[in-house]
Amino acid sequence: MSLILISDIHLQPGRPDLSAGLSRFLDNLDRDCQQLYLLGDLFEYWIGDDAPLPGAEQLAEQLHGLSDRGIQLFFQAGNRDFLVGQQWLKQAGTQLLPEAFKLRFPDGVMTLLMHGDQLCTDDTAYQAFRQQVRDPDWQQAFLHKSVDERIAIAEQLRTESKKQGAAKTDAIMDVSPATVQQVMEKAAVSRLIHGHTHRPAVHQLELTSGMAERMVLGDWGKKGWYIKADTTGTRLLSFAI
């Protein structure tokens, strides 16, 4: 039995390489894979299940094929695709996870899964924005707008995000070590896996309960990143797209 975890593919129009790379990756999943976790930002943006991105329906069909094969599929919302809803998830045969999800990995380690944006608490401007757009009332108001209006708002938000990102320091845009420690100790885990920061690495850290690790998935570009977990261990891996 193995688990596969991916995040930050950022599927979008104009990047057929990402769609093709993900399709090949899914076609070639290890036969012993029993669970696949999509930890957010699968899509560059998502304005509602009634207006899926080009290729999203084909991806849903491919994912549902994996589900039909007996692989359990799980989706955790990212900062780009938090509006993915039950309609698309049902088409994809995929279950929605909460923002933080704890489970015991095949190697016996209690592990916490997150997208990771909620760990970047030093970026107070982003956290205020996150609180706004995750509010159910804001989401309902947004989803009741026309598709054209939603596209315009999404493009505006993406442009503003890029401008703000260019003006922020790397430290502010990374996770807060204090928040990581607090979250892990509250969840009583010795491993945290997340994406979002686009800084793939495995970090060792010390908690009050002992040594722990933080595994960071990378964003897909020239390389694809994934984590494979089985009884022999949990590894961060990459491949050429």
Automatic annotation (TrEMBL):
Binding site for substrate: 79-80, 123, 161, 168, 196
GO cellular component terms, semicolon-separated: cytoplasm; extrinsic component of plasma membrane
Chemical reaction(s) catalysed: UDP-2-N,3-O-bis[(3R)-3-hydroxytetradecanoyl]-alpha-D-glucosamine + H2O = 2-N,3-O-bis[(3R)-3-hydroxytetradecanoyl]-alpha-D-glucosaminyl 1-phosphate + UMP + 2 H(+)
E.C. number(s) listed in UniProt: 3.6.1.54
Cofactor details (free text): Binds 2 Mn(2+) ions per subunit in a binuclear metal center.
Keywords: Cell inner membrane, Cell membrane, Hydrolase, Lipid A biosynthesis, Lipid biosynthesis, Lipid metabolism, Manganese, Membrane, Metal-binding
Domain Calcineurin-like phosphoesterase, chain residue ranges per copy: 1-200
Record GO biological process: lipid A biosynthetic process
Cellular compartments annotated: Cell inner membrane
Pathway terms, separated by semicolons: Glycolipid biosynthesis; lipid IV(A) biosynthesis; lipid IV(A) from (3R)-3-hydroxytetradecanoyl-[acyl-carrier-protein] and UDP-N-acetyl-alpha-D-glucosamine: step 4/6
Family matches, as InterPro entries: Calcineurin-like_PHP, LpxH-like, Metallo-depent_PP-like, UDP-diacylglucosamine_Hdrlase
Co-factor requirement: Mn(2+)
Family: Belongs to the LpxH family.
UniProt-recorded name of the protein: UDP-2,3-diacylglucosamine hydrolase
